[in-house]
Write a sequence for this structure.
């Protein structure tokens, strides 16, 4: 005859417990290994992404600056394989009136602020002939965000005070505000960056993109080309610039891996 | 037996009651796997979006740059060329081939130095294909020149003027408006008569009675030579040739074929489209091409054409043929059929009239329209620093 009530539940045998523990250990070890691999994967991906960001930013900044220059107009002060000194266009406007040594501007775009070494390039026709037209350089002594209206009631968006000869500057003359900048590879805190500094004495590099590979690993390489496709280091002959940048992804700190990006830019204002 | 079975007697009770963690472990593993996949997807997605954004920006940049070039290349002198200082004109939105497009604003600004030049500020905003963002803006300063080619007489002939018998006028310096042109086409144009011909010596004209003008029929310029007959004040001969819409080594031309493009505009790319001088309502009525023929040109048949003809060799016209504009002939001008030229002519060699009812008539309106509505006044971006990227 069987009991009407079931007996107490049976416990696990030792073998069952050992098997369960072994299985659990295997699963946990596998999980930890997967997590560790995933962490490494993320970290590697993050480093690659960071490197690509640095590459894109560096190439974008340099190509944008170089694109606006005019080599026959002497906008390239000094060129080297890992640095370039140039006139960096900060803003653009059109003269709507000339009062004394101040230029009132409309149609202003860009970053019209003033810093040491800033100048404006103003288009001056001189005579009827096209051949004596020039972009006259006038150092900036002051800059105001507002001023009296131009003739015909047009609001002046900026008033730029300059030194130098303002004769012959006509209403409608295009104006480019520029600052002399040097872009180059420089080291800070053990890492290398694309740096920019005002070319005027007293300024030092500040990082604008990076980190990049060190100079020995060609972190930044600029190759300048003439019209006929040959390379040159004469700033007056440049029509195209190859910009090659290399950024580390650091497989380990002692054994970095690198990513590269190259692009080519034609100088748009060569004429 | 029944109490040792599970529900419906299918599952042993011992198995049914066992407390395991396989399900929890499986769920945990799945979550972990999902996290790994999501992480990878996130990284890839972020990179993809950055890449797509960069491509969009690049596409927008080039669309904007293409917009500036297209505004200049499709310049309509009748519209944009007549902007007053500070007036502006909106272009587009224009869709480019392959997607993307641009909008443009053209504004004229003034120059006090030279009224023969006009300056334009062209600002474009380019957008990439599709609905992606990435609009980029650029601007350019362009200069249009308004050079004058001629004419101080119906014709300027460096060598001689020859004509057969008859008394009909062959060179007429009295200012004439082409009869087929509406008065509005010539409104505001300069007026005034001129000599019938300018030559180096009075006896260079074989039959002076067939030349008429005002205040004199024949004007003498003793300094005139074959070398300086094309000395224009504002533009060189080489510059003029460089502005030609179409170039031929030699040509036998019957009649202009004014054709339209897909948008219903005058198709300036067709080499045999030399305007529609007889059809004021036609889009090509205001199209005056500059045609350069380095060798000989033969205008042959019952044709019509307008523009600026720059011929390096002989220009032979066996009409009836009517031409409206400016003739620049590097060698001889030979007209042997009934031909009417409204405008003016400059000839390095001889001007020979052998037919009847052939006249070169001074038309200041035709000359000015040819100068103003041709490639001569198309603006060019300033050679240095005329281009700027806007932010």
């Amino acid at each position: 005859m069987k009991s009407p009530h079931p007996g107490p539940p049976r416990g696990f045998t030792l073998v069952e417990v050992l098997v369960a523990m072994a299985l659990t250990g295997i699963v946990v070890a596998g999980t930890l290994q997967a997590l560790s691999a995933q962490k490494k994967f993320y970290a590697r991906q993050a480093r690659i992404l960071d490197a690509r960001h640095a590459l894109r930013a560096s190439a974008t900044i340099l190509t944008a600056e170089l694109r606006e220059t005019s080599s026959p107009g002497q906008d390239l002060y000094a060129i080297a394989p890992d640095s370039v000194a140039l006139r960096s266009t900060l803003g653009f406007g059109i003269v709507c009136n000339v009062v004394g040594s101040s230029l009132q501007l409309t149609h202003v775009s860009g970053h019209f602020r003033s810093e040491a070494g800033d100048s404006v390039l103003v288009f001056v026709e001189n005579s009827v002939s096209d051949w004596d037209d020039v972009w006259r350089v006038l150092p900036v002594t002051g800059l105001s965000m507002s001023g009296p209206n131009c003739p015909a009631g047009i609001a002046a968006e900026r008033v730029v005070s300059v030194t130098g000869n303002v004769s012959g500057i006509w209403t409608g003359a295009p104006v480019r505000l520029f600052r002399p900048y040097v872009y180059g590879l420089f080291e800070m805190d053990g890492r290398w960056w694309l740096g920019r500094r005002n070319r005027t004495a007293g300024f030092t590099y500040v990082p604008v993109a990076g980190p990049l590979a060190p100079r020995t690993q060609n972190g930044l390489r600029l190759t300048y080309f003439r019209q006929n496709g040959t390379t040159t280091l004469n700033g007056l002959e440049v029509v195209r610039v190859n910009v090659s940048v290399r950024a580390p992804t650091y497989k380990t700190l002692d054994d970095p891996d690198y990513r590269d990006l190259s692009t080519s830019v034609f100088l748009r204002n060569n004429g | 037996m029944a109490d040792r079975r599970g529900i419906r007697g299918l599952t042993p009770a011992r198995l049914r009651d066992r407390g395991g963690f396989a399900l929890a472990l499986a769920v945990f593993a799945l979550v972990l796997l999902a996290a790994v996949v999501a992480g990878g997807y996130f990284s890839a997605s972020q990179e993809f979006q950055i890449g797509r954004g960069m491509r969009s920006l690049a596409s927008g940049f080039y669309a904007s740059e293409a917009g500036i070039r297209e505004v200049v290349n499709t310049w309509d002198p009748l519209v944009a060329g007549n902007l007053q200082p500070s007036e502006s004109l909106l272009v587009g939105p224009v869709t480019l081939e392959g997607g993307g497009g641009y909008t443009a604003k053209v504004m004229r600004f003034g120059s006090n130095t030279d009224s023969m030049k006009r300056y334009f500020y062209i600002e474009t905003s380019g957008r990439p294909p599709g609905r992606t963002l990435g609009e980029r803006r650029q601007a350019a300063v362009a200069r249009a020149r308004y050079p004058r080619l001629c004419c101080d007489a119906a014709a300027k002939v460096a060598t001689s003027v020859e004509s057969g018998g008859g008394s009909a006028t062959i060179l007429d310096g009295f200012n004439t408006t082409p009869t087929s042109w509406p008065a509005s086409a010539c409104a505001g144009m300069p007026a005034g008569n001129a000599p019938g011909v300018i030559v180096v010596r009075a006896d260079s004209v074989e039959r002076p009675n067939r030349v008429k003008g005002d205040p004199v029929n024949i004007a003498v310029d003793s300094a005139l030579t074959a070398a300086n007959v094309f000395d224009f004040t504002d533009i060189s001969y080489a510059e003029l040739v460089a502005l030609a819409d179409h170039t031929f080594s030699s040509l036998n031309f019957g009649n202009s074929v004014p054709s339209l493009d897909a948008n219903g505009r005058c198709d300036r790319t067709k080499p045999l489209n030399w305007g529609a001088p007889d059809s004021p309502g036609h889009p090509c009525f205001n199209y005056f091409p500059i045609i350069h023929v380095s060798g000989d040109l033969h205008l042959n048949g019952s044709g019509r054409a307008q523009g600026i003809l720059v011929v390096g060799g002989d220009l032979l016209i066996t009409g009836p043929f009517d031409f409206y504009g400016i003739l620049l002939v590097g060698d001889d001008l030979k007209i042997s059929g009934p031909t009417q030229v409204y405008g003016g002519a400059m000839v390095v060699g001889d001007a020979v009239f052998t037919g009847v009812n052939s006249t070169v008539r001074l038309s200041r309106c035709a000359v000015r329209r040819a100068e103003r509505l041709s490639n001569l006044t198309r603006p060019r971006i300033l050679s240095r620093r005329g281009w700027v990227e806007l932010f």
Summary: The interface with chain A takes residues 3, 14, 17, 25, 28-29, 32, 35-36, 39-40, 43, 46-47, 50, 54, 85-86, 107, 109-114, 116-117, 119, 121, 137, 139, 141, 145, 234, 382-391 of chain B (CB under 8 Å). Chain B has a mean pLDDT of 85. Residues 80 and 261 of chain B are 20 Å apart (CA to CA).
